Amino acid sequence: MPGIANLTIEQFQDKIDHFDQAYVRDWNAWCQALRAKQNVASKFGEILRRWQACRPNRMRRTQQEEQHDPPFLENLIVQSTQYIQALQNFDIRRQAALNGEVCLALEQLWNIFQNLSYYGRVRNGLAGVVGISKAVLLLTEGRVGPAFDSNVSGHLQIRKPLNAQQWFESLQKVSKDILTFEAANQCTLQTATPQAFACLHSGRIYDMALGPRG
User: Do 197 and 209 meet the contact criterion of CB atoms below 8 Å apart?
Assistant: First the structure.
């Protein structure tokens, strides 16, 4: 069954409730660091490594860790700032949100976060959509999601995007999937979500629904 379109509210809630709690703890720790503006780059790297964002390639580290030449994680975050800010009002529930401005922002973020990894045997050492989409999921606080790992791609029955345009097109499919679910159940994604997670942005909620089980 692809995506969430054919789920009842009860089935959807069951998926959220059984999302791996380790990822919930990581998310809470990330949000705390981001809002406190403390150790953001180190927490960013710590979580992405735990999420195996760049496997099997080597992921960049902070400047303090001194493990490779620039750019460091801090540099990538700074480079992405204006494009992350351009997505502050993005809501994947709205088809109109997937416009040309968003497409351009995603293209720039793809180009920046390809450099999330710097050495390895695949993609000439660059990061792919798993690392890129997980990085952007974190930095947009769940506005742009899901992360296109094997779980999500398998549920959606799509191949992992290989470039920014395919990523954008995959997000369009996600948006349609959400709208179909909402229409069928006469709800919004947030009202269908268990109360503890209803405050989250739509991309994060969707990521939890299709993500790894606990």
Answer: no
Dihedral sign for Cα atoms in the order 12, 170, 124, 64 = negative
Nearest to 168 by CA among 105, 103, 72: 103
pTM above 0.85, yes or no: yes
Q: Would you say residue 1 has pLDDT above 90?
A: no
The answer to whether residues 209 and 16 touch, using CB atoms and an 8 Å cutoff, is yes
Does residue 148 have a pLDDT over 90?
Answer: yes
Percentage of the chain exceeding pLDDT 70: 100
Note the pLDDT of residue 213.
87
The two most distant CA atoms of the chain are separated, in Å, by 53
Q: How far is CA 9 from CA 6, 21, 54, 100, 125, in A?
A: 10, 21, 34, 32, 42
| Token pair recorded at residue 189 | 């994604």
- Please name which of 138, 136, 86 lies closest in space to residue 110, comparing C-alpha atoms: 136
Q: How far is CA 69 from CA 22, 81, 87, 121, in A?
A: 32, 21, 30, 19
Contact 92, 145 (CB under 8 A): yes
